[in-house]
Amino acid sequence: MVVRPVLITGAGKRIGLALARHFLAQQQPVIISYRTRYPAVAELEQAGAICLFGDFSTNEGIEKFANNVKQHCDGLRAIVHNASDWLAESPDSPPADTLAAMLQIHVNAPYLLNQYLEPLLRGHGHAGSDIIHFTDYVVERGSDKHIAYAASKAALDNMTRSFARKLAPEVKVNAIAPAMIMFNENDDAEYRKAALNKSLMKIAPGEQEIIGLVEYLLNSEYVTGRTHSVDGGRPLR
């Protein structure tokens, strides 16, 4: 039996990269998208992943990427929408540009990819395929410095339920809303302390926390249309 690949967008670093490594270690075929060819992309290629350039800044680029995916497989086990950007409102950038960029990567890209690649997800039985959207904790509380970012992730959160309705029962569609999963190397001690104090659990749990949840969602035959918060109890602070 041919094992259908998992498609992970933006898997050149951090959580996307960790997920790609995890699946490859399980002999699960993986297709990733990248816009910047980070050193890890070559590592993934050597491990057997199909690594495809994807420019999601235009709808034409999204369609071109989807067509490229179709040339490499006849079916998908899952689409994990990890590609993201984190633009803040700034006097140096017109607000309309900031909003357009956030909507493009967090709304247009997953919406169009789900539509274009739907035929690859269908036809594999009850709960045979999955879509996972990565949203954000700020969907619940908003953000005064990243207004467009928060709004675009909120739209993606809502889209989770719409696609769950459309694609059931063949395809489960869920969202993961993380907060402070892992630090960047250049985060200083003061920032790390302040960030950890925002949650009840007071740790940065690392990518394994997300990997475990993704595996749970893929293995479920029943969970769909839900947002799964991974925030250490922040709303209770």
Automatic annotation (TrEMBL):
Listed InterPro entries:
NAD(P)-bd_dom_sf, Sc_DH/Rdtase_CS, SDR_fam
Keyword Oxidoreductase on entry: yes
For the keyword Transferase, the answer is: no
| Catalysed reaction equations from the record | 7,8-dihydromonapterin + NADPH + H(+) = 5,6,7,8-tetrahydromonapterin + NADP(+); (6S)-5,6,7,8-tetrahydrofolate + NADP(+) = 7,8-dihydrofolate + NADPH + H(+)
Q: Name one GO biological process term.
A: one-carbon metabolic process
Pfam families named in the record: adh_short_C2 (PF13561)
The signal peptide here is none
Stated EC number for the protein is: 1.5.1.3, 1.5.1.50
Kindly state which keywords UniProt assigns to this record, in alphabetical order: NADP, One-carbon metabolism, Oxidoreductase
A single GO molecular-function term is: dihydrofolate reductase activity
What role is this protein assigned? Answer: Catalyzes the reduction of dihydromonapterin to tetrahydromonapterin. Also has lower activity with dihydrofolate.
Q: PANTHER family attached here?
A: DIHYDROMONAPTERIN REDUCTASE (PTHR43639:SF6), OXIDOREDUCTASE, SHORT-CHAIN DEHYDROGENASE/REDUCTASE FAMILY (AFU_ORTHOLOGUE AFUA_5G02870) (PTHR43639)
Per the record, the similarity remark reads:
Belongs to the short-chain dehydrogenases/reductases (SDR) family. FolM subfamily.
> What protein name is recorded for this chain?
Dihydromonapterin reductase
Species of origin reads: Buttiauxella izardii
